[in-house]
Structures are given as C-alpha cells and as structure tokens.
Amino acid sequence: xxxxxxxxxxxxxxxxxxxxxxxxxxxxxxxxxxxxxxxxxxxxxxxxxxxxxxxxxxxxxxxxxxxxxxxxxxxxxxxxxxxxxxxxxxxxxxxxxxxxxxxxxxxxxxxxxxxxxxxxxxxxxxxxxxxxxxxxxxxxxxxxxxxxxxxxxxxxxxxxxxxxxxxxxxxxxxxxxxxxx
Length: 181
Hints:
single chain; alpha+beta; 38% helix; four-stranded mixed β-sheet; elongated; thylakoid; PH-domain like; four-stranded antiparallel β-sheet; photosynthesis
C-alpha cells in the first residue's frame, strides 16, 4: 500500500461555469448592441428592430445592463482561465506531512500552500446538512480545534461518496472519524 494519498480538487473549470459565462456574455452583448442600436439608429442586431427604441430611457438602460453583464462574464472567463480554486490535498505518511495546495487569483497570493504535521490532526470531521442549501463537507480537525476544509466548493457530493472519502482518509491517517453515525 502506498504511503502517499493525493486528492485532486476541481477548480473553476466546471461545465456550469462555462455555461454561465457563455450565456451571460451572449445576453450582455444582446443588451449592449440593442442599446447602441437605439443610439446610433443603425440595426446592429439581426432579426430585431432595436433601433426603434428610444435611447432615453430604454436604450441607455439596455446599454448599462449589457455592459454590466459583459463585465460579469469577463470575470467568470478569467476565473476559468486562471482555474481559481483548483489544487490538491496530499497526505504523506512517509514524511508525516499534509499539504493543501490551491490556486487563487493572480498576484502575490496566487498560490496557497499549507503544510500540517499528521501528528497535529485529531480527527476527520464530516458535516452533512440537507435542505434548501445542502452542505456535505470533509474537514481535518486539529488538536487545537481548528477545522481545515478539504472538499471543493460547488455542488455537494453524493452521501455515499463523502462517507467513502472520509472513511478512507480517516483510516489512511489513523485518526477518528466524526460526524457519521
């Protein structure tokens, strides 16, 4: 059996992010071009008659909403390109070291790399909350009561998946599992 366990963490490059970035961009371009058409009195959008809109108030509002949507879309596309939130969790029993690695936004703090000794870990804790905003998360609980999140942000994992991951991690680290009855 290997003494090193690595879990990859999916960042911003999810299908849902590609979908929303594209939909918001297309919608924003539509609004922006409709507003611009009303100002220039030239039809910039095919199959529409947006140049017949009054620029004030409809055209200016559409231009504003289109600009905001394009900026939000650009933000989403940059987070996808930079793969914000991606990384890995490495549990190394040979060295007695846990490494948590994540990518952030460009700048001084682009790379987040945290190291913990395995001896500092008291347990693996699982939080499961169902309802309108379900939470299914795995944490490393240290002896000084800090909780270090290990699961990715986004859609919650299946109950069986989170139980299997937490159980195998607790066995691998040789610590207690909390939160699963």
